[in-house]
């Protein structure tokens, strides 16, 4: 009798390779010192396996590369813009498109249009650039994610869900007219890539329609969220990823999108809308910050690659292999006893630094220290998602998030299963010597988004 097989395999074959540089422990030690113990400041050539982010680090398909040769680089009215507009309408269902150079360009424009000083912006956990744009526009972010999201050990399947009781408290306190919009992110990044259920999205839509509040979607990893709905939520097992993606969007009024994730490109994003008046204002504002409304800071070839990538992102076999690779790494981590956020999320593995390094105070930046140690062991670059990323409040005080995580982000279509084995084994070695790891002291802190450029030294 043949054994049952649940294995996944990549739905592609490799046509070209990029050679990686192997480094010695002494070389990595010097590189980390020069980078101020901040993995963002490491040179790419000093990294063996790069898990810093899945943003713009994906491998494009042969169809996308061929599309790059079809770039219409006209300043106005590029045909590639209209291809992208068609893809957004067909796959996501939004009526109006404003291209931007990447997701944060769309966040900036949306915030300037929709937020007035003093407005409240509820969201299912903050994301760094999103919250900063909201705050720079005068808004006040409030976290309305369910409590389970702040518990790394909770096995609740949809930890990205919005807690409507928390939203109602804000409405009661400030009034619906003070709510700029509800920002709903799918596969919530800082919770560990945790999905939102369709039932929750419907509930948010019903609640907001009754009170005249708009819902804006951060749809950067929407196809991954759709996969989790397909696999975990009753009534969706027989629906396609594409069908679920479109239904998610139908419960929102607009969306910001970083094409550098789901759409498998190296640069690009957009703001998608259903309200013509907001679109008209955004179309005017994009000219100021990004470029003409038919290119938004992008070359025609980039828009073409993104339009092709949008279609590829909702292919069933692609998403099965994408999430399958993440799960493979997560399961290996668990086998070695490494504490990770569960359930395993969509775009990476999130190691719980508080459990990994319980002897290191959060004010001594345990996740930052752990990311440095992981690089030292085998040249694997990860990133901190904890107190450093959380930043400071308006009074200059450090936020102290409940989650103190190291993110192992898996680029799409880039690494093999053997790379996942190396990553898990290296992390296990660091875990074995975890009691020897010390915290860090911040010696340089930039004004905004400090995790990108801050520098540290060992205590």
Q: Could you say which overall geometry the principal axes of the C-alpha atoms support?
A: globular
Count of helical segments?
A: 16
Structural class: alpha/beta
Can you identify the CATH class of the largest domain?
Alpha Beta
Poorly predicted residue ranges: none
Order of helices and strands: HEHHEHEHEHEHEHHEEHHHEHHEEHEHEE
Number of domains: 2
Count of distinct strands: 14
Percentage of β-strand residues: 5-15%
Mean pLDDT: 96
CATH superfamily of the largest domain: Type I PLP-dependent aspartate aminotransferase-like (Major domain)
- How does the major sheet shape up? 5 strands, mixed
CATH topology of the largest domain: Aspartate Aminotransferase, domain 2
**Secondary structure: helix percent:** 25-40%
CATH architecture assignment name of the largest domain: 3-Layer(aba) Sandwich
Radius of gyration equals 21 Å
| Distance between the ends | 58 Å
- Provide the spatial order of strands within the biggest beta sheet: 2-8-7-6-5
GO biological process, one term: tyrosine metabolic process
Catalytic activity: L-tyrosine + H2O = phenol + pyruvate + NH4(+)
Cofactor: pyridoxal 5'-phosphate
GO molecular function: tyrosine phenol-lyase activity
């Amino acid at each position: 009798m043949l054994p049952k097989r649940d294995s996944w395999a990549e739905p592609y074959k490799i046509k070209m390779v990029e050679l990686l540089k192997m480094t010695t422990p002494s070389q990595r030690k010097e590189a980390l010192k020069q980078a101020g113990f901040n993995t963002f400041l490491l040179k790419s050539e000093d990294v063996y396996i790069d898990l810093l982010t899945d943003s713009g680090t994906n491998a494009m398909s042969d169809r996308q590369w061929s599309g790059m040769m079809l770039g219409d680089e006209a300043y106005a009215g590029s045909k590639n813009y209209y291809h992208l507009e068609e893809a957004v309408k067909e796959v996501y269902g939004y009526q109006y498109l404003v291209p931007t150079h990447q997701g944060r360009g769309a966040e900036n424009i949306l915030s300037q249009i929709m937020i007035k000083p003093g407005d409240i912006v509820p969201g299912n956990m903050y994301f760094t650039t999103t919250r900063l744009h909201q705050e720079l526009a005068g808004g006040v972010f409030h976290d309305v994610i369910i409590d389970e999201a702040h518990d790394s050990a909770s096995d609740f399947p949809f930890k990205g869900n919005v807690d409507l009781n928390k939203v109602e408290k804000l409405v009661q306190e400030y009034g619906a007219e003070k709510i700029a919009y509800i920002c709903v992110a799918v596969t919530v990044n800082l919770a560990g890539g945790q999905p939102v259920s369709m039932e929750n999205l419907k509930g948010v839509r019903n609640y907001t329609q009754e009170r005249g509040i708009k819902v804006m979607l951060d749809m950067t990893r929407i196809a991954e969220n759709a996969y989790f709905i397909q696999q975990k939520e009753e009534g969706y097992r027989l629906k396609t990823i594409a069908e679920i993606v479109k239904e998610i969007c139908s419960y929102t009024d607009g969306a910001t999108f970083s094409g550098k994730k789901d759409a498998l490109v190296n640069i690009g994003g957009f703001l998608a809308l259903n309200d013509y008046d907001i679109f008209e204002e955004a179309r005017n504002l994009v000219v100021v910050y990004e470029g003409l409304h038919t290119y938004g800071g992008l070359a025609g070839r980039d828009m073409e690659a993104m339009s092709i990538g949008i279609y590829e992102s909702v292919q069933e076999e692609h998403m099965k292999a994408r999430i399958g690779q993440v799960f493979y790494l997560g399961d290996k981590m668990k086998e070695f006893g490494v504490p990770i956020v569960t359930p395993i999320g969509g775009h990476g593995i999130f190691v719980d630094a508080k459990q990994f390094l319980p002897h290191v105070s959060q004010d001594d930046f345990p996740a930052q220290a752990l990311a440095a140690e992981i690089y030292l062991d085998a040249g694997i670059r990860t990133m901190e998602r904890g107190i450093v990323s959380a930043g400071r409040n308006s009074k200059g005080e450090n936020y102290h998030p409940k989650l103190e995580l190291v993110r192992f982000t898996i680029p799409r279509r880039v690494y093999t299963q053997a790379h996942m084995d190396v990553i898990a084994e290296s992390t296990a070695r660091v875990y074995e010597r975890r009691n020897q790891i010390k915290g860090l002291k911040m010696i340089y802190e930039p004004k905004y988004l400090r995790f990108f450029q801050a520098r540290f030294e060992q205590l």
